[in-house]
Each structure stands twice: as structure tokens, then as C-alpha cells.
């Protein structure tokens, strides 16, 4: 097993390398980060050139990539523009854990910018994920047990609609009903934007209240594919011999379904969850922008808009690395739960 | 009555193999199975109506009218003159959903064309040649899959953005960003198809007909495109159909974030850009384009589902 894990981790390295090269090339046309750095316009052209040199933006792209990857503390750069490289570089490069510093928030390390927002995204996304999994398990199992019944057809139809629904549409509908109309009808209504009411402060109750609409919107969308999946794996397992055996030896139906069948039916679901979990890091771009939730998605959009390459690269590389690591974890968990699977032979 | 008797006589004189009905072609078989999926047929009907709405509606409303803005009329509620109301600068939303629908549907279609061509090329080359070509292409595919699609779309929209001038096709002016959106949606969605095509090629290339083709001196190009590719049409058709729905959704998302097709060209997606500022005052702003997107995506997904059932070789019986 250890050898398998090491091999998988080693395979991830070239993958991350390819991803970083592709992304770095795509970053080159993001716009001019110096033009409106830190919210101010740089007007004097000498300032402009000095800043460009300081940030290393005057270097050719391959050199910028090398500096980003391994740092530039092994070489000297020309800061005063006289053609002689005199100042030793300070960057350590992403390989040594230095993600660089943000261009928009001058000098703030990228990891600090990200770690400020990450918890906000995680509470939102994890809450949604838990609700999605529980709801989909319930609906999927129920659907499978009552195949082709009215309830099954209803669940299937709803999940098809949810699957086809653009998230902003359901979000706007929920906002209109639970915030606008409820307010008009003098009912207790839900807040639509932000993470807490600035007048009340960031209390647990406030955050929970503000979470309801985004979490429900995301759940409705993603619930669909999970429950369809669970329904089909459950149907497959229910028709197997061991389930018939369990039933015929007189076990209560509940135990057969929830202990014997569900155990095996949930194996493939672990793969789906394992592939989805790392994507939660990035947050839901559209959901976060509609509900003005201060998470990773909006952080990403904000810094893309201002051509803040280090932050954008940092976010994307973290997600890519998380995807790779979670794929390995998923495979390991899978082998651990299903003794028929052996990676070493 | 005479006719029936005559026909009966005729049948009695027929030989056994003449009695058999001719075998159904793949198309007939597929259609027969597709018809049994009620929701898929309903989806097909709704889709036809939507296409009629977007392209037939253009006969009644001119594009100038769709782009005509009168700020005095801004944010007007649905009324007899403006059935769907007016938007924040006073344009008629009904007219814009018609022209926006054309663009959204065309984006879906063209983006999927790019996706399919790219996916088939990568998948076929990787699956057919194997070896280092396969590992290189598949590593690249995997790398693209590791970045969530919406992030990739935004980065690409930035990369290609603001370069292409306005286009005039058939007397109509389109924002250059339209081409950008089509290309980037195509370039960020081919990966699944490539994997499917590769898997098909891996098993199909071991068949005897490939060996026979090779023995008669058929070129690699001929084997790939004329001998193997026609055998994996079914999964490609299903993936491409569902791809249209995905492309329309992607366009809506990226336009909703303001990075999509730029006005005055309307799409269902960019009509929603900024609509969340008016949830209290003008819900018609987002309701109609949003509903049209939902209906389109839903009906395409049902059609795709029906096609999958109809084309699945494991269940192919009449």
C-alpha cells in the first residue's frame, strides 16, 4: 500500500507541473496589474517602470515562470534601471512554499490572502455538502425501494429539473420568495447578501441565518446528480443474490436495506464525494457572487479582475493539488472499504 | 374486401424468407426506442418550440427594436406593449429574449462542434496510437480536468478577451466576444468526450476488421476515421447532445459574471448580468431569460437521456 501511495504521489508531480505551465501561459494576458495597483492609478511613467521592474514583470515569461517556481534568491535583479543587476532577489518560489505576494494588497503573502477567506468558503460549502449527501441518500434509497412509484417519478423529475437549473435562477427565485415577498407580507424574512449584519456583528446566529439561502440553493442544484447516482447503485445492489438471501432468511427489511444493501451501494458514492470535496475549496463562484458571500470564489473574481497573478495562480494551484490528493485518498479509502480491490499485485 | 382476399392469397404464395419484414436500420431502431421515453419526446417538442420562438420570433420583431433603448421606459413592469417588461435601460425584454435565444442556442451548437472535434481528435489519437502519445495527451486531459471548469472559463475569457473586433455576418453585427465565448466553452469541455472516445478506440482497435483494414494497406487516417470512428458514434452523439445543454449553462454563468458576450448583443446569459440588484423592484428582469435557459437545458437533457437509452447497445431490443 505504501508503495502504491508513493507511486501515485510521484505521478501527481508531472501533472501539477503541466497544470502550472498551462495556467501560467493563460495568466499572461490578464491585463496590466501595475495600471491600478492598490486602488491608485500610477500616473508617472518613471513610477510605472520602477514598479514593473520591482515586480519582475519586465522579464520574459519563461523567466517569470522560473522565478515563480523556484524563486529568485539565487540571482540578482536590476531595480534602478541602469542595466546592472545589483539587488539580490527575495522570492523563494512555490516549490519552497512561497506563493509570492499579492499585487493588489501590496506585500501581503498570497497564502495569507487565501487563508483569510478559506474558512468562510468552507463553512458554506461543507454545510451544503452534508445536506446534499444526507438528502440524496434519503431520496435515492427511497426512490430505489419504490421504483416507478409516484414518489420515485416525482423525485426523478425534481432531480432532473435541479440538474438543469442554472444556480442563479434558483437563487433569485429563493431570494424573491423568502426575502422580498416575505418582507412584503410582514413575515420573518431571510437576509440575502453578505455573511452577517454589520449592525449586529459576526455572531454564530447571524452567520447561520445568512447561510440558509446560499446553502439551500446549492443543495437543490447538486442534490440531483447525487440522488440519481445513489438510486441507480442501490437498484443494482438490491437485485443481488446476497440481498435476496438476507431477505429470505427472515431479516427485517430495514436491516437488509440499511445495513446490507446500503453498505455496498455507498461504495461508488464515495468516489463521487471524494472527487467533489476538493472542488469545495474553490467555493461556488456564482453562488458567492449572488449572495455577496466573502469566500474564495469572490476572492478569485476580485483578483482576476485586477490581474493579480500570484493570488490567482495560488488559488488555482491549491485547488489542483487538492484534487490530486483527494483522488489518492479516495482510492485508498475505497480499497480499505472494499476488500475485493487490491492495488498491489 | 376483395383487396384483403387478394393480399391473403399473395401472402400464401410467398416463400418463407420473403415473409420476413426487412430488418430495421439503426436509425429506425433508435427512433422506435426513443419514442418510448415519453419525457424525451416531450423534450424534443419543447426544444422545437423554443427554436421556433427564437428564430420564428425574429420575423415579427426587428433586432433594432431589441437593442433600442429608451431610458424613460426603464424597469417597466410587464404590460400590453411590453409583455415581458423592460430592462434597466428601457429595452423590451420580450424582443431581447428572442434575439438572445438565437445567440444562446447558436453558442451551444458551435461550442459543442469545437468540443466534439477536439475531443474526438485527442481521444482517437491517444487511443489508436497508445504509447507516449497516449500518456502525453491523457496527462494533458487530466491536467485540464483538475481545474474546475468555471475557473478555467474565467481565466480563458480573460486570456482571449478584448481582441476580436465586431463581426458582421449576414448583415447583422455581432460582438467579437461571441467568438471568444464559443471557443473557450469548446476548449474547456472536450475532456470527458476525449476519455470516452479513447476508451472506445482502445477496445475497437483490437478487432479483426481493423487488422483486415491494415492488411489491405489502409492508411492510419483511413482506419481511424472510416473504420473505427463510425463504431463509436452512439456515445459521441449522447455526449454531444448533453454538451449543448452544458454549453448553454456555461455561457449563462460566465455572462452572468459579466465576462461573457458583451452588449448590445443579447444572450439569455448576459440579460441576467446585474439582475440581482433589482430583485426587489424588477423580478421580470431575470425571470424570463432564466426560465428560457431552464426550459432549454431541461429539454436537451431529457433528449440526451432518451438518446442514451435508445442507443445503448446493451438494451437493444425492439
Radius of gyration of chain A: 25 Å
What is the total tally of β strands of chain B? Answer: 2
H/E series of chain B: HHHHHHHHEEHHHHHH
The pLDDT mean of chain A sits at: 82
Largest sheet of chain A: 2 strands, antiparallel
Strand order of the largest sheet of chain B: 1-2
Number of strands of chain A: 2
In quaternary terms, these chains amount to heterodimer
Helix percentage range of chain B: 55-70%
N→C terminal distance of chain A: 10 Å
Number of helices of chain B: 14
Task: Give the overall silhouette of chain A.
Answer: flat
Q: What value does the average pLDDT of chain B take?
A: 83
Using brief descriptors, characterize the structure shown:
heterodimer; A: 345 residues; mainly alpha; two-stranded antiparallel sheet; B: 318 residues; two-stranded antiparallel ribbon; 2 strands
Task: Give a written overview of the molecule.
The complex is a heterodimer of chains A (345) and B (318). Chain A is mostly helical and 345 residues long. Chain A contains 12 helices and 2 strands. Chain A has helices spanning 2-27, 45-54, 61-70, 110-145, 150-164, 167-184, 204-238, 241-248, 253-280, 285-290, 296-305, 309-337; strands spanning 76-77, 87-88. Chain A has a two-stranded antiparallel ribbon. In chain A, helix 4 packs antiparallel against helix 9 and helix 4 (110-145) runs parallel beside helix 12 (309-337). The mean pLDDT of chain A is 82. Chain B has helices spanning 2-12, 16-19, 26-36, 38-56, 63-67, 93-129, 131-145, 149-160, 177-187, 191-204, 208-215, 220-228, 233-256, 284-311, and strands at residues 167-169, 172-174. A two-stranded antiparallel ribbon of chain B has the order 1-2. In chain B, a hairpin with a 2-residue loop joins strand 1 and strand 2 (172-174). By secondary structure, chain B is an all-alpha fold. The two termini of chain B are 32 Å apart. In chain B, helix 3 packs across helix 14 (284-311) and helix 6 packs parallel to helix 14. The A-B interface holds A 14-15, 18-19, 22-23, 26-31, 160-161, 163-169, 171-172, 175-176, 179-180, 192, 279, 282, 285-286, 289-290, 300-301, 304, 312, 315-316, 319-320, 323-324 and B 39, 139-140, 142-144, 146-148, 150-151, 154-156, 158-161, 245, 249, 252-253, 256-257, 272, 275-276, 279-280, 283, 286-287, 290-291, 293-294, 297-298, 301-302, 305.
